[in-house]
Amino acid sequence: RQKGLTLGLVESASGGLISHRITNVPGSSDYYKGSVTAYSNEVKIKVVGVREDTINQYGAVSSQVAEEMAQGGRKLLAADICLADTGIAGPGGATPGKPVGLFYIGLSHQAGTYSQKHNFQGDREQNKRSAAEAALGWLKEYLMSLK
């Protein structure tokens, strides 16, 4: 709010938990535009604008998809900054090289689009909570780095 920027979210494995945390803050309506819970690949592609080729090449849980989710969400929600997450909350869903607890957080702003990789070690609920905390922590750091 202090920077005068608006925020949008595209959540997948966190299932709306980041949005829940944002809207728990009084006054969040001053800067928070809204969110899309893009749990299925179909919603990632048809609503958010992730390229099907990107999902086919890298998988839904990848830095590339997290970044495209953040870019697409920023455009769709007309937000200055968009955070996105994609991951494997557990207990199932792991594949070779992509264990339960693997999350990618995407962040898109006019200055660029970035992603972070995280490996959480909890159960489903803990992994979702850890992803939300990581995303919000990164957002805070990013905002503080802006001049």
TrEMBL record:
Signal peptide: none annotated. Residues 2-143 form the CinA C-terminal domain. InterPro entries: CinA-like_C, CinA_C. It holds the Pfam family CinA. Gene3D superfamilies: CinA-like. The lineage of its organism: unclassified sequences, metagenomes, ecological metagenomes. This is CinA C-terminal domain-containing protein.
